């Protein structure tokens, strides 16, 4: 069905970590070549990442990522680019207010200070334009330490339990807590999940909006956009799986 649509009638939106790259790794040349040389001629292409633009650019091979892809939505779409130009930017600080944010940040730091993990490093709270990234192990950990924490987290549900405590502690702040990537939790105002990107894409007249992501289960940061009635959601397990599903979808 999709193969009969023109490029301007179908858009494929991609999560980054676990979908086009391995977690926090740089995109492999065969994956990039496939997306840009085989998918892009047949469909409009966009990225919807939880990270800020700097991190997305690092993973996607450089700052020209905003020109390679038709859309780049950083921080869940709260920082939005189309055809290389900035088209939207939201501020969690303005939306929530400094006083409430500090109460939240102080609580999160206090909670993490009581955790005992295989390792702890630095940068436990990262403040971005559209969200706060909370990381129990610390974002300055090495890749090996990330993998170690991810395995530990899977067994001991560190992030899952943390999210439940945050929900109990802050029922009235209007914040949502979403597990993303291997090591962290994204915190943002309700409605500021990845469906925010659809505010832009929805205006552009596509007949089909496809989304590919690996964290599509409830609580994962791809869940809302995957479930959204405006999208056709695809759960993937790796960049290779993404390529395989695209070949079937677009009959490549």
Strand and helix map with partners:
Layout: E1 10-14, H1 29-39, E2 44-48, H2 53-59, H3 65-68, E3 71-74, E4 79-82, E5 85-89, H4 92-96, H5 98-113, E6 125-127, E7 132-134, H6 143-156, H7 158-169, E8 175-180, E9 184-189, H8 198-201, E10 208-213, H9 223-227, E11 232-235, H10 239-250
Parallel strand pairs: 1-2, 1-10, 2-3, 10-11
Antiparallel strand pairs: 3-4, 4-5, 6-7, 7-9, 8-9
Helix pairs in contact: 1-10
Give a brief description.
By secondary structure, this protein is α/β, with parallel strands linked by helices.
Feature tags:
four-stranded antiparallel beta sheet, cytoplasm, 10 helices, 252 residues, alpha/beta, globular, metal ion binding, Hypothetical Protein, Haloacid Dehalogenase-like Hydrolase, Chain: A, domain 2, seven-stranded mixed beta sheet, Rossmann fold, metal-binding
